[in-house]
Design brief:
- The structure is a single chain.
- By secondary structure, the chain is an alpha/beta fold.
- It has twelve helices and eight strands.
- Strands 1-2-3-4-5-6-7-8 form an eight-stranded parallel β-barrel, surrounded by five helices.
- Helix 3 links the parallel strand 2 and strand 3.
- It is globular, with a radius of gyration of 18 Å.
- This is Probable 5-dehydro-4-deoxyglucarate dehydratase.
- Belongs to the DapA family.
Amino acid sequence: MTSAPLAARLGRVAGPLFFPVTAYGPDGAVDLDAFRAHVRTGIDAGAAAVFACCGTGEFHALTPQEFRGVVAAAVEETAGEVPVVAGAGYGTALAIQYAKLAEEAGADGLLAMPPYLVVADQEGLLSHYAALAAATSLETIVYQRDNAVFTPATVVALAGTPGVIGLKDGYGDLDLMQRIVSAVRTELPGQDFLYFNGLPTAELTGPAYRGIGVTLYSSAVFAFAPDIALAFYRAMDGGDEELAGDLLDHFYRPLVELRAKGRGYAVSLVKAGVRLGGLDVGEVRPPLTEPPAAHIEELTAIIARGRAVLEKHGQERRG
């Protein structure tokens, strides 16, 4: 963990947020060497932060001991170059346990995923995240999705909760997000609260989220095609609408359409992409399953088309 506050570091990022996959060996055990190599590739390619053991990293499939080991490996490999944020989830007691393990491992912050299984009311959700944020010294980003969708008033309360620094939106209701941003801005003027586009393949909705002031986003693509992800990030940040549009049309939209063809593809398709890049990170753990060969071939072609767009625009390949 570095001395600089996570909120300040994430507020001035100059690259995509990297959500690495968790590597497994042939025996199914966590392969920390392959994971470190994966993290190092991302850092060298220009990642602004490493979010370890989150959705793409199969948090749901890791034991507490495995979780701590993977987070520690990410911290060791980054060596303070970029912040490391670890996932934390399940019920309140277990989420706190994972948060403490992440703190012990040296993480800079937490991504608080929805509580397991139950559908709670707003008061219960607020109590859950307040307890999690209070359990460690780590700054916490709350992940809105599935069974954890918040009213603007609840987000105002979260933004005023010590230790909570931001909201990652994986729900995708832009009307709701605009009202949330407006409510926090109105009720807590001057509050530096961070917002993240956390939809799968967030780049596809990047222009829409930018329209309401949300520029930070999680990039699953960066895990397997960092050159494409970084080129898109720079195009959006620099106002190169032609390059951004070409990548949306010829890479990101086809990728999202492929992702929709299988359950769990937000994870398994990403992991397949990492293997296509030459790093053996193993397969996903059950209950997720691997994409069939036809979909791997389709992914290969989509990646090739994305790189063809970069060549067309004279972009140097990175990663």
